[in-house]
Write a structure and sequence with these properties.
about 0% strand; about 150 residues; globular; mainly alpha
Length: about 150
């Protein structure tokens, strides 16, 4: 292999070393401030990290961040709807109520995977996870609290 050909296979970092250090520092400062802010607004700081994970699974841009945020919020809302459905179906189906509820949720989320701006499946599922992990009641207030903390 020639020297020119071998250079094509060498991976270069996306940012120069100084740029990477600055980006890391700024991101860490923003994360610390967001965790502090979430805590003092009465939000669980772990929910804020749901938003961070969702944001960083796609290319980083303001527009993509808004689309990702929308998917997280919709995922939280879908979690509340799923909890309501479990409450309705639970008395009739017992633990088997989870089958139709998860089936419908998965169908909706996965059907939207090719429909921008709703195509961030990871963000949808992170919103669902946040809702169920929070153990909050299915309400508009719960959706607002979790969505705001993730935002």
């Amino acid at each position: 292999m020639s020297n020119e050909t071998s250079k094509a296979f060498i991976c270069k970092p996306a940012l120069p070393a100084a740029g990477s250090i600055i980006f890391t520092g700024v991101a860490a400062i923003v994360a610390a401030g967001a965790a502090f802010g979430a805590l003092h607004l009465g939000f669980a700081p772990w929910v804020m990290f749901v938003g961070w994970v969702a944001y960083f699974v796609r290319p980083i841009s303001a527009a993509q961040g808004l689309r990702t945020g929308l998917c997280v919020w919709l995922g939280v809302g879908m979690g509340a709807v799923a909890a309501l459905a479990l409450g309705v179906l639970g008395p009739m189906l017992g633990q088997a109520a989870i089958l139709p509820v998860v089936f419908v949720v998965a169908c909706v989320v996965l059907a939207l995977r090719s429909a921008p701006p709703f195509d961030n499946v990871v963000a949808w599922f992170l919103g669902l996870i946040a809702f169920f992990a929070s153990h909050l009641p299915p309400s508009l207030l719960s959706i607002a609290e979790l969505g705001a903390a993730a935002s």
